[in-house]
Every structure is written in C-alpha cells, then in structure tokens.
Amino acid sequence: MRFAEPVEVVGVDGDDTLWRCQDAFDDAEVEVARLLAPYAGPEQVARALARTERTNLSTYGFGVKSWTLNVLQTAQELAGPDAPVVPFLELGRSLLTGPVEVLPGAEEAVLALGRTHRVVLVTKGDLVDQRRKLAASGLAGCFSHVEIVPDKGPATYAELLRFLGVPPERFLMVGNSEVSDVHPVLELGGWAVHVPYRTTWVLERAETPVVHERRVTVASLSEVPALLRADSA
C-alpha cells in the first residue's frame, strides 16, 4: 500500500481488533439455542435472532443490552408464553461482566503506531460496556482520543475527522469489520486496513469484500506499523 499523502491519524477498532468479543456472543447463542430447543431447531433459532436483530437495529443499536432484548423477543416469538426469561437475562449479564482478553500483539502494535502517529480508538456499541472493556484492557493510555459511537457510517467518520482536524486522505482506519471499519472510510476517501477475526457477527459480514487501492487485508494487527514504516521509507 502506497499512501497518496502521509497518514496523520490512525483509527483502531476495539471489539475483535484489540480484544476478543464475538466469541462470547457465539457461546451465548449456543446456550440460547439449547434453551429454545423444545420449540425450534438451532438453525431456526439463529435465523430468527438474526432477523430480529436486523429489524431492531435502528431502534436498539449495538451491544449486549440490545442483544439481550433481541433474544427475549426472539424467544417470545418461538416459544410464546412458555419462553424462559431469567436465563436470557443472566446470559446478558454474563456478557456485560465477563473478562476482557486483549488479543496477542495488540498492545505492542498500538504502542508502535503511537510512536509515529496520532492513534485514536474508534469503537461502537454500548457506552458503559465499551468503557468497561477499555479500562479492563489496560490500553486506554495508548490513545490520544477515544470515540465510542452508536454506529460506524460515513457520517459518523466524517464528524470524527472534522473534530480531529484531519482530512480523509490522511486518515487510516484499522479493524476487523468490512462493513464498519472499511467501507465507510473508503467512501469518504480515507484508507483502511482490514484485520479479519476468526468469527464475525452476521450483520457485520460483507457479501463481497471491496477491492480498492486504498485498502489492504493483513493477518494481524502487528503488521500495521510495518505498513506505515514501509510507506515512509
């Protein structure tokens, strides 16, 4: 990747880029399917939950609390008045209080980026939960600015770049989601590094990855500092 202009600011995603996240949701949804097994098969449960999440996205947004509401609604639709409630609430609570596991090499990569660039955290979801995960990760001091947003669309990134005082062509976003970390930044004229994670939430999966001269895919966050060093050499 060769940058048309020097990158000034590097944005880094949180969930499944810096710390594990989707694994816990995947495990929780296995338990949801088990609890609803008397009423529907696992594939039917998964389809129903995804449909509910998509329908409610503009109302509930992202995060554990919205997931819990969507699970409760899905359970009501599949099981009617017999749907359990307390086990699903407990699942949601466990997601909100579980340990935060920083991905291997993430801290070192962010520190390396910070030695040459302004590095900002750009993560979305529930404000309280994201703050908790950032604090528990021990990475808060690595960032010159932290932005926790309800959604990651072009308008959100444009507002952030205006606040940071950086033009899109000097901004690089790094994250695991094609939908949230790559596509909207490219649309604005910025740069993107896609770092795929082993599992992706169904609503974050792109039907077709975008092929673009201003994006690249790497296997690990640890590779990103070298990309910027190579370009400036």
Explain how this protein is built.
It comes from uncultured Frankineae bacterium. This is Hydrolase, haloacid delahogenase-like family. Keywords: Hydrolase. This protein has 233 residues and is α/β, with parallel strands linked by helices. Helix content is 48%, strand content 12%. It has helices spanning 22-35, 42-60, 64-79, 86-97, 106-114, 127-137, 154-164, 178-188, 224-232; strands spanning 9-12, 118-124, 145-149, 171-175, 191-194, 215-217. The chain has a six-stranded parallel β-sheet, with helices on both faces. Helix 8 links the parallel strand 4 (171-175) and strand 5 (191-194). Helix 1 (22-35) packs across helix 2 (42-60). The mean pLDDT is 94.
Any low-confidence stretches, pLDDT <50, length ≥5? none
Strand arrangement across the biggest beta sheet: 3-2-1-4-5-6
Number of domains: 2
The termini sit apart by: 12 Å
Shape designation: elongated
- Put simply, the count of helices is 9
Per CATH, the superfamily of the largest domain is HAD superfamily/HAD-like
Biggest β-sheet description: 6 strands, parallel
CATH architecture tag of the largest domain? 3-Layer(aba) Sandwich
CATH topology description of the largest domain: Rossmann fold
**Structural category:** alpha/beta
How many E-type strands? 6
β-strand percent reads 5-15%
Q: Order of SSEs, N→C?
A: EHHHHHEHEHEHEEH
Helix content: 40-55%
CATH C-level name of the largest domain:
Alpha Beta
- The whole-number mean of residue pLDDT values reads 94
User: From the alpha-carbon coordinates, what is the Rg to the nearest angstrom?
Assistant: 19 Å
Keywords: Hydrolase
GO molecular function: hydrolase activity
InterPro entries: HAD-like_sf, HAD_sf, PGP-like_dom2, S-2-haloacid_dehalogenase
Protein name: Hydrolase, haloacid delahogenase-like family
